[in-house]
Design a protein that fits this description.
This protein is mainly β and 208 residues long. The protein has one domain. The protein is 3% helix and 57% strand. It has a 6-stranded antiparallel sheet with strand order 1-2-3-4-5-6, with no helix packed on it.
Length: 208
């Protein structure tokens, strides 16, 4: 059902995705330095089952490794439910409405409506309420994207969050390719106790 956009996230047993993950971790106030790491992530659809609403659910095993020369370690499982109206992905017990159908430019939705706005993630030992003030929107259906030797046209770009206040910033964007699935994600979760509104976020981070 191409007109709906279902092909932006194909799901079937055996389907997998592998990613290189680059992270910049800033410490709390009073700590200097930035931790920069590269790791690798693999998601593979390994099974299906019916939930208590008789909906078909796909189980993804999530693997990680710190080097592309090492074997994969199983670290978690995620779950996907997909029908003609939406695709919901459950990660770490949180239910994200990643896509809605049909896919049309500038369509928007509350992709975190199933998540409590105070739900937190842990970064460097600190809990951060990461999911408030998100608004998902189909920003573009025709972006171009190069990752290493791979090039894609007609990339679907979903802007999930772009919120800035004087003491926090939340940014999240995801990109999808037809018949491939999710190929790129960028996220910023920034909090600060430096309340000088004259400073840019780059300068605030340098003061951490």
């Amino acid at each position: 059902m191409e007109k709906y956009g279902l092909e932006y996230y194909p799901v079937e047993i055996g389907k997998y995705w592998e990613y290189s993950v680059d992270s910049l971790l800033y410490g709390p106030v009073g700590h200097t330095g930035v931790d920069s790491t590269t790791s690798y992530l693999r998601e593979e659809i390994v099974d299906t089952f019916r939930n208590d609403k008789n909906e078909l659910v796909y189980r993804l095993d999530v693997f990680a490794r710190s080097s592309d020369t090492l074997g994969w370690d199983l670290i978690n499982s995620s779950f996907i439910r997909k029908d003609n109206s939406s695709l919901i992905k459950t990660e770490n017990g949180l239910h994200f409405i990643k896509l809605t159908f049909p896919v049309t430019r500038y369509s928007n939705w509350n992709g975190n409506v199933l998540i409590h706005w105070k739900s937190a993630i842990v970064i460097k030992g600190e809990e951060i309420a990461a999911f408030d003030n998100w608004n998902y929107i189909y920003e573009s259906l025709s972006d171009k994207l190069d990752i290493g030797p791979k090039h894609w046209d007609d990339v679907l770009t979903v802007n999930e969050a772009d919120y800035t206040a004087f003491d926090n910033k939340r940014y999240s964007v995801a990109q999808y390719v037809k018949n491939v699935g999710p190929v790129y994600r960028e996220q910023w979760f920034l909090d600060t106790q430096i309340y000088d509104e004259r400073l840019t976020w780059r300068r605030k981070l340098k003061k951490v």
